[in-house]
Amino acid sequence: MSRIAVVTPATATAEQHALLDAIQAKLGMVPNFLKVFANSPAALRAFLGLHSIAGEGSLDAPTRERIALALAQQNTCEYCLAAHTAIGRKAGLTGQEIQANRAGGSEDARAAVAVQFARALVEHKGDVTTAEIQSMRDVGYTDAAIVEVITHVGMNLLTNILGKASRVEIDFPRVSLQ
C-alpha cells in the first residue's frame, strides 16, 4: 500500500481530474506514480512539462529507456524498474539489452557510454571527471546531448525517489531487482 495517497477519480479535485484525464487520454492508462504526483497538481504539471520537453531532444527513446533502466536498478527503485522494463520493450529493447542496461552497459557501444555516464552522474552526485565527459564526446555526443543525459538523470532520480518514498503499488509487470 502506498505511503502517500494515490489520487483516484473519487478523491480528485477538479484540477487533479483534468490532469489525470489528460494522461489517460494520452497513455490509455494513468500509472500509479502519476496518481501520487497528482497530490500536488503543480508538481505533476512540472514533471509532465519537463518530461515532454526532454523528449524533444536529440536522445532517442531507446537511449532514454536504457538510462532509466540503469538508474532504476542503481537506485533500487522497483516501481521504476518495472515501468521502464515495459516501456523499454515498447521502445524496441530486447531482454538481453535490458539486462545489459540494468548492469550499467548496453549492447550498443555508443549507448553504453551514455548509460555509464548517467550512472557516474548519480554515483558521484554530478562530480564527474573531465575524462567521463570526454568519453561522451569521443562517441559523438554533443554538449547538447550531454546536457540532455544530465536532464534525464535528474528526471529519473526524481521518479526513483518518489517511487521509493511512496512505496506506490507497482502497476506494471513486476521485475526483480538484481
Description:
With 178 residues, the chain is an all-alpha fold. The protein folds into two domains: 14-54, no CATH class; 61-166, AhpD-like. Helix content is 66%, strand content 0%. Helix 3 (41-54) packs antiparallel against helix 9. The mean pLDDT is 97.
Topology:
Blueprint: H1 14-27, H2 32-37, H3 41-54, H4 61-74, H5 78-90, H6 95-102, H7 109-123, H8 130-138, H9 143-166
Which blocks of ≥5 consecutive residues have pLDDT under 50?
none
Sketch the topology as an H/E string, one letter per element: HHHHHHHHH
Q: What is the CATH-assigned architecture of the largest domain? A: Up-down Bundle
Global Rg: 16 Å
Question: What portion of residues belong to β-strands?
Answer: under 5%
- Count of DSSP H/I helices: 9
End-to-end span in angstroms?
A: 23 Å
CATH class of the largest domain: Mainly Alpha
What spatial form do the alpha-carbon principal axes imply?
globular
How is the biggest beta sheet arranged? none
Q: What structural class do the secondary elements suggest?
A: mainly alpha
Short synopsis of the structure:
The chain is mainly alpha-helical and 178 residues long.
Q: Keyphrases for this structure?
A:
single chain; 178 residues; mainly alpha; AhpD-like; 2 domains; 0% strand; globular
